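hiii, so i know i said id send this last week but things got crazy w the move. better late than never?? heres the sequnce for the chain we talked about at the cafe, plus the structure i predicted for it. fair warning i was half asleep when i ran it
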Amino acid sequence: MLETALDACLSPETLRKIETGRVATPAFSTIAAIASVLGLSLDDVWREITKADGGTEVTSSSSSRQHLAS
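okay and structure toks below
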């Protein structure tokens, strides 16, 4: 855990708090940094989150995705 935290530029305590739920809504950049260190895409992380929430996956139309990408 120490190496993961440091590679994501977080303190080990912050990562510990996120893992135990004491940080209920970590910043997007924090999640992105942890995902990157762990070799996960944000799509993979989102899939796991929605699976944990009962499988309700939110999707957008391809035109919305293209608009957001530009």
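btw The CA atoms of residues 25 and 34 lie 14 Å apart. thought thatd interest u
miss u guys!!
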